[in-house]
Specification:
This protein has 208 residues and is α/β, with parallel strands linked by helices. 36% of the residues lie in helices and 19% in strands. The strands form 2 sheets. The chain has a 5-stranded mixed sheet with strand order 1-4-5-3-2, with helices on one face. Strands 6-8-7 form a 3-stranded mixed sheet. A hairpin with a 4-residue loop joins β7 and β8.
C-alpha cells in the first residue's frame, strides 16, 4: 500500500528538464528503526506537491517533485519510510498472499528450490513462530507474527522454506539464510519480543 504526503516546497528551484522523470538511488542510510532495504528516489516534473512511497520487491521507491531540494528529499525519505513501516505493521496478510510471498522468497533467496504445497496462518502455535512438515510440503506461521514488520514475517517464512531443504539447524541450513540481508535484524526483533514477554508485569498503580 503506497503512502502519500503533501510536502512544503517553499524556495525550491525549478527542474531544468520539464516532463522528464529522473531516478537515482538515495545515498543516505534510512533513519534508525526503519527499513534497511535499498531506497530509490524518483523525481518527476509532473509531481508538484505530493510525495509517495511504495515497496517494489526488496526495494522502496519514493516519488518526489523534481524541484525539491536535497535537504527536503532527505527529510521526506525518512518520513515516508516511517509511514510505510507504520502501515505495514497494521496490515494483516491472508493465506493467499502468504503463499505468494513464499514463492517470491524462494525464487529470490533459494533459487526456487523450496516449493511448499501449502502456507497458512495457525492459532495453535504459541511457543514457535513457524513450523513445517517437509513430507507434506506444508508451512505454518503463528498468528502472533501478524502485525509485526514484514521483514520479520519474511524471515520466519524463509526460515521454514529452508527447512523444506534442510531439516536441522546445522551450518548448511544457516548458509541458506545468509543471502537474506535482514536475518540478524529479524532474529534480534523476535528475541526482543520473547524477552519482553518474559518480563514481570508491573502492578497497577493504586489511587491514593
Amino acid at each position: 500500500m503506497p503512502a502519500d504526503s503533501p510536502p512544503g516546497l517553499a524556495g525550491a528551484t525549478p527542474e531544468r528538464r520539464a516532463g522528464r522523470q529522473q531516478r537515482r538511488a538515495a545515498a543516505t542510510q534510512p533513519p534508525r528503526g526503519t527499513s534497511a532495504s535499498p531506497v530509490e528516489v524518483r523525481r518527476s516534473a509532473r509531481r508538484s506537491r505530493t510525495v509517495s512511497a511504495y515497496r517494489e520487491g526488496d526495494r522502496t521507491i519514493v516519488l518526489i517533485p523534481a524541484r525539491m531540494s536535497e535537504a527536503e528529499e532527505q527529510r521526506w525519505v525518512g518520513v515516508m519510510l516511517d509511514k510505510l513501516a507504520a502501515q505495514e505493521s497494521k496490515r494483516v496478510i491472508g493465506d493467499s498472499e502468504l503463499s505468494d510471498r513464499a514463492e517470491r522468497l524462494s525464487d529470490q533467496y533459494l533459487e526456487g528450490r523450496a516449493r511448499p504445497a501449502s502456507v497458512r496462518w495457525v492459532t495453535n502455535q504459541n511457543t514457535r513462530w513457524g513450523s513445517c512438515t517437509p513430507a507434506e510440503g506444508s508451512i505454518r506461521l503463528s498468528h502472533r507474527l501478524q502485525g509485526m514488520p514484514e521483514y520479520v514475517v519474511d524471515y520466519v517464512l524463509l526460515h521454514e522454506l529452508a527447512h523444506l531443504l534442510v531439516p536441522g539447524h546445522g551450518p548448511r541450513f544457516w548458509r541458506l539464510l545468509e543471502a537474506y540481508p535482514r536475518t540478524e535484524r529479524a532474529r534480534g526483533y523476535l528475541e526482543g519480543v520473547v524477552a519482553a514477554d518474559r518480563l514481570p508485569r508491573l502492578p497497577a498503580a493504586r489511587e491514593e
